[in-house]
């Protein structure tokens, strides 16, 4: 049974949407949530990075050290080539930082649904990597032109860690800034309880804005 066309949209965010939201201040928070709500209502969305992620995963899975990344810009429509060309050097550098290609394997991750108070947030890493010594990382990719802020990185890593049992058991969360080839991990000094309290407040405000945007 389908919901009526005018049925209220329940508040919901993806990990990307929520972490971009916490990175904003003042009135820009409200306009951002309003934009997310309209996008959800229209059911429109396009991921321009799909082929890029597929190439990166192929290089890890087949131990090819960047050959798939090197050719992926030629496989996409001309409008996306400048984007792919801008992403490739950093991604290749990060791939090289993992060590010998034969010593790293692709690991399957699963999506999870986090509840921050009453706000559902979809936790969706791009993939996992497993090293020869057995330890693993769940990887989320950051594609933006600007580096991830400290707040956005912390929120991403905390929420992934919070649900790692479902995502990739015993793995460490990693946020990779693709353009710069830099991997971000949770700082040792971070207190999870304080992060949880901060995110709960952000989630409550997100829900309130979502409701007023109806």
Q: Can you characterise this structure?
A:
With 214 residues, this protein is an alpha/beta fold. The protein contains eight helices and eight strands. The chain has helices at residues 15-22, 27-42, 50-61, 67-72, 81-97, 150-162, 164-167, 192-212, and strands at 13-14, 104-107, 112-116, 119-123, 127-131, 136-142, 172-177, 182-184. Strands 2-5-6-7-8 form a five-stranded mixed sheet, sandwiched between helices. A three-stranded mixed sheet has the order 1-4-3. β5 (127-131) and β6 (136-142) form a beta hairpin. α1 runs antiparallel to α6.
List keywords for this structure.
single chain, 214 residues, alpha/beta, 5-stranded mixed sheet, 3-stranded mixed sheet, 45% helix, 17% strand, globular
- Helix residue percentage: 40-55%
Spatial strand arrangement across the major sheet: 2-5-6-7-8
Radius of gyration: 18 Å
Biggest sheet statistics: 5 strands, mixed
Specify the number of helices. Answer: 8
Distance between the termini: 23 Å
Number of strands: 8
Structural class comes to alpha/beta
Instruction: Indicate the mean pLDDT.
Output: 93
Beta fraction of the residues?
Answer: 15-25%
Report the principal-axis shape.
globular
Write the layout of secondary structure elements.
Layout: E1 13-14, H1 15-22, H2 27-42, H3 50-61, H4 67-72, H5 81-97, E2 104-107, E3 112-116, E4 119-123, E5 127-131, E6 136-142, H6 150-162, H7 164-167, E7 172-177, E8 182-184, H8 192-212
Parallel strand pairs: 1-4, 6-7
Antiparallel strand pairs: 2-5, 3-4, 5-6, 7-8
Helix pairs in contact: 1-6
């Amino acid at each position: 049974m389908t919901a009526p066309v005018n049925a209220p949209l329940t508040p919901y965010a993806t990990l990307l949407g929520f972490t971009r939201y916490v990175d904003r201040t003042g009135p820009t928070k409200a306009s951002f949530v309003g934009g997310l709500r309209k996008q959800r209502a229209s059911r429109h969305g396009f991921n321009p990075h799909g082929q890029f992620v597929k190439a990166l995963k192929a290089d890890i899975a087949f131990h090819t050290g960047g050959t798939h990344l090197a050719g992926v810009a030629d496989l996409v429509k001309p409008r996306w080539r400048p984007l792919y060309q801008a992403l490739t050097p950093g991604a290749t550098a990060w791939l090289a930082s993992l060590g010998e290609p034969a010593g790293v394997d692709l690991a399957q991750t699963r999506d999870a649904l986090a509840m921050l108070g009453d706000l559902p947030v979809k936790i969706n890493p791009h993939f996992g990597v497993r090293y020869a010594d057995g330890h693993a990382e769940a990887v989320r990719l950051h594609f933006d032109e600007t580096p991830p802020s400290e707040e956005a990185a912390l929120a991403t890593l905390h929420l992934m860690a919070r649900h790692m049992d479902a995502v990739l058991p015993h793995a460490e969360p990693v946020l990779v800034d693709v353009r710069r080839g830099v991997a971000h991990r949770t700082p040792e000094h971070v207190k999870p309880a304080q992060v949880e309290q901060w995110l709960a407040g952000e989630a409550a405000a997100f829900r309130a804005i979502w409701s007023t945007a109806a």
